[in-house]
Amino acid sequence: MAKFEIIDTNTWIRKSQFDFFSTFLNPDYGFNKKIDVTTVLEYSKETKTSFFINFLYVFSLAMNDIPEMRLRYVNGEVRRYDLINPGYTVKTNDGSFNNCGHEFTRNYQEFYSRAHEQIEIHKEKVLTRENYNDNVLYNEFYATCVPIIDFEAMTHPLPLGDKNSLCVPRACWGKYVFIDGKYMMNLNITVSHMLVDGFPLAETFNLLQKYCDEFKELIKK
Questions:
Q1: Which pLDDT does position 11 carry in this prediction?
Q2: CB atoms within 10 A of CB 149
């Protein structure tokens, strides 16, 4: 059972912003930023582990460590979840894709094992339209990647009018490229302005970069 704190929006310091952006059919916005993934990539190559899972790990840490990224609007109330889980797309063996996810843990080895297991299962799993999104959870974030293109910006498909879903952060990263001695990768994070202002969103990018730089030491903890 996901644990969360209910925010009293009447006394919330962000009450005016929350009330204002709640009137928008689409309150979502996002930033695109190049992330230096050199250390994560080096480790992935040295250990023959999945770069996707390794980056997903540091990204999940950053998303959990910025409190605003754990805020959700669910059935008329603002919740701050204790933990949020990664939900992500997996390319299937037939060339389509599935959505899957796993429970977040700060333990790197356990995180890697859980992600690897889900990815292998969903490579083979065939989902129908009826069960494609049959387990909608709000104590998670949505992540995907397009590793064959170095895009400059992107937009997510959004269910306009569904404030519950719109408040779930969405992320997409592209192909890493070698620039000035470093491997850089563009990352988009899209959030709802009902809950997340520009400063905590920027903090998330900065913390993620710190975790990428410290990856080899971070996974030993």
A1: 96
A2: 10
Sign of CA dihedral 126, 128, 133, 134: negative
**pLDDT the model gives residue 135:** 52
Q: In what order do the strands lie in the sheet with 4-7?
A: 4-7, 77-81, 71-74
Nearest to 169 by CA among 39, 52, 81: 81
* Phi and psi, residue 191, nearest 5°: -135, 170
pLDDT tens sequence across 60-98: 999 999 999 999 999 999 999 999 999 999 988 887 888
Handedness of CA 8, 11, 14, 17 (dihedral sign): positive
pLDDT digits (tens, 9 = 90+) for 94-152: 878 888 999 999 999 999 999 999 999 988 866 654 544 445 678 999 999 999 999 99
